């Protein structure tokens, strides 16, 4: 809607030029110039993520490029086992086992993968539960899932310092917000205090009705 409004305003500006309405044309021209700067400020997070996508190794690969343009059917790409991930989260929620799962989309996560231990494990429910078991040597930090593989564990994520985040949310939640603010990745957090499962996208908590609704939302976002 914003860009539609800008387009209409641009057409009016050009019409005033054709009709030689110089004063009105000058006023609209200056408004558009100022509006362009305002748009950059308002959409700076989206612009940064788009530039990150352009510079990521995944985007420059044939598969990543086609997926970004929605020219490649997502069924042809390895589908993340969402059911296994959410089943594990649900069971960890019942036992109040803390967990932080990051799901890669288009932007490269190499800059955080390097902080953890590299893995190459097919996603499944028992593995996820065993990683985050409190006595496991791998339970600290986040795990990263890419193309249905756990590619890194014990990952240290950038932590959001935003003051508006409620105090009931701890370090895992702030890390989930941090990574989804800097990239287009998705994050699932299981609270070890309450057992609550949080879904974070674009540095915001995504509301969902139940696990079925969360499943649908996650699948939809992973297909983008």
List its salient traits:
single chain; 224 residues; alpha+beta; YojJ-like (1; 2 domains; 7-stranded mixed β-sheet; 10 helices; 7 strands; elongated
Structure write-up:
This protein has helices at 2-18, 22-42, 44-55, 57-60, 62-68, 82-94, 110-113, 125-132, 171-182, 211-222, and strands spanning 99-103, 117-122, 142-146, 149-155, 186-190, 197-201, 204-206. With 224 residues, the protein is an alpha+beta fold. It folds into two domains: 2-68, no CATH class; 79-222, DNA integrity scanning protein, DisA, N-terminal domain (YojJ-like (1). Helix 6 packs antiparallel against helix 10 (211-222). The radius of gyration is 22 Å and the shape is elongated. The chain starts with a helix and ends with a helix. Mean pLDDT is 82; it is low at 71-77.
């Amino acid at each position: 809607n914003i860009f539609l409004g800008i387009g209409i305003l641009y057409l009016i500006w050009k019409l005033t030029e054709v009709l030689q309405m110089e004063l009105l044309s000058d006023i609209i021209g200056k408004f558009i110039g100022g509006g362009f700067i305002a748009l950059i400020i308002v959409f700076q997070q989206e612009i940064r993520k788009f530039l990150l996508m352009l510079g990521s190794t995944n985007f420059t690969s044939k598969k990543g490029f086609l997926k970004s343009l929605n020219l490649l059917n997502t069924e042809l790409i390895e589908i993340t086992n969402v059911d296994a991930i959410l089943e594990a989260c649900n069971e960890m929620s019942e036992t109040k086992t803390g967990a932080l799962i990051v799901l890669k989309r288009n932007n490269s996560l190499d800059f955080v993968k390097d902080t953890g231990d590299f893995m190459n494990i097919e996603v499944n429910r028992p593995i996820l539960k065993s990683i985050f078991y409190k006595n496991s040597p791998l339970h600290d930090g986040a795990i990263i899932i890419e193309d249905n593989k756990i590619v890194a564990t014990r990952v240290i994520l950038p932590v959001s310092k935003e003051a508006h985040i409620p105090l009931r949310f701890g370090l895992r939640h702030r890390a989930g917000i941090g990574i989804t603010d800097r990239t287009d990745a998705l994050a699932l957090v299981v609270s070890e205090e309450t057992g609550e499962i949080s879904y974070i996208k674009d540095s915001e908590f995504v509301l969902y009705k139940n696990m079925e609704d969360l499943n649908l939302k996650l699948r939809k976002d992973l297909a983008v």
